[in-house]
Amino acid sequence: LGFTAPLIDSISTFKAKFQNWAECEKSKADLRAESYRNSLIQEQAVIDSKLIELIDIQQEMGTTEKNDNSSNTVEGKEDITSRKKILEEKSAGVQIEILKLKTERDNRDKRVQDIALEESKQRIRANDASSLKRMAEESKKTTIDDLTRGIVSYKKLGLDFTQTGRDAGLEFSFTQLDPVDPSRKFSFVFLVNDEEKYDIIECKPNIDDNVLADILEELNGTDREDMSMLVRCMR
């Protein structure tokens, strides 16, 4: 039936958009992972360079210490002492740099782990949402199929309906009710109002407001998909 086509098209469009979004997010995640790997390689290269520099300084300090022991002049000892002080300060500075780099790397590792954990939670939530969406679509399809079969059956009893194009309403019309004039048409418009409840308007001929209120109260009750009840009551 024609009124199911917009819903099917809407579901298909949503699925396509969701698939494109998922692929785009995966590409972004891959790029972030590659960028992070490159950053780790660069940071490790800097740390390795600083470690080599520290080793060179320590070796030079050892050489200076030997020279200090073998020096016999006051001037020579003063020069060596000054050089040792410079090397010690330089060594301390390099060690601080190495510690800082390692701390930054460790902090980044923790952030990446936190992000990975959050992404994992998001994927689980997305999978759960996808499952719920699929269940909702299957339930909606079942409801539409049931409604369609019911309407086809009622057509044999003089029921017909058309989509009004306004407020997504359906106009139900009946014949075969008036024994004097079986072709006489009785109709009403059925829709969901702004309060997300079923409503009935434009009854031809008019139906008592109290009768309509009773029908709507039952229809909007626990079983909101009992269209057969609606048709029976309105007939």
Automatic annotation (TrEMBL):
GO biological process: cell division; chromosome segregation
Record's keyword terms, sorted: Cell cycle, Cell division, Centromere, Chromosome, Coiled coil, Kinetochore, Mitosis, Nucleus
Annotated Gene3D superfamilies: Chromosome segregation protein Spc25
Chief site of localization: nucleus
Source superkingdom: Eukaryota
Cellular compartment(s): Chromosome, Centromere; Nucleus; Chromosome, Centromere, Kinetochore
All copies of domain Chromosome segregation protein Spc25 C-terminal, residue ranges: 166-235
Pfam entry (one): Spindle_Spc25
GO CC terms: Ndc80 complex; nucleus
Family membership noted in the UniProt record: Belongs to the SPC25 family.
Subunit structure, interactors included: Component of the NDC80 complex.
Summary of the function given for this chain in its UniProt record: Acts as a component of the essential kinetochore-associated NDC80 complex, which is required for chromosome segregation and spindle checkpoint activity.
Protein name as annotated: Kinetochore protein SPC25
Species per Swiss-Prot/TrEMBL record: Fragilariopsis cylindrus CCMP1102
